[in-house]
Amino acid sequence: MGIILRFFLTFFVFYFLIKFVINLLIGKRWASENKTYRQQQQQQQQQQQQKRNKIQSQEDRIISYQKKKFESSTIEDVEFEEIKEK
What we know:
The chain is mainly α.
């Protein structure tokens, strides 16, 4: 039983070592990881830029609405009465 277990363990260790060395020499693993990392970074940057644009455009809309509201409001003359305390 111990011989079979030792055989499978050594087989898996050698298999993964050979696979790692081949991937390291070819660069397939590292290239794919770098590619996915770059894609994630680009997506995050795009999302951040979109959020910034939305915030700026929303602030601009609020300011323009307030300007329009102020400009369209009617001006009323008000007469003040002084209240004298006794």
